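Table S2 (continued). Query chain:
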Amino acid sequence: MSLVSCASFDLIDDLIRYLDGEVVDFSGYGVDLSHLTDFEQRVLCETRKIGYGSMITYSKLARAIGRPKAARAVGNALRKNPAPIVIPCHRVVAKSGIGGYVLGVDLKRRLLELEGDVVPI
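Corresponding output:
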């Protein structure tokens, strides 16, 4: 993973503030996605637009990038996220529940609860 634009200690401070329950804007941190396919990059760039305390479904994210039948592929692209939390893939959930998370479903649930979301079962 390559983060640019800010010193790494700034990112660590922001992550600590976020985990302490503070709303933190991570949009100032660049993330190198050049090793990913165009589709994966589009998924992750669109994911960055999901605001704090918000959730969308994999299918809604697929529609947002113009690929309405690609919900499963969206999930696969999210697994390649090199910067979870900075690119908030935990905010993407399944229609019928929480869905998966590269760092584990329990952590996904905790992050959503931290942001004040009602977490799907």
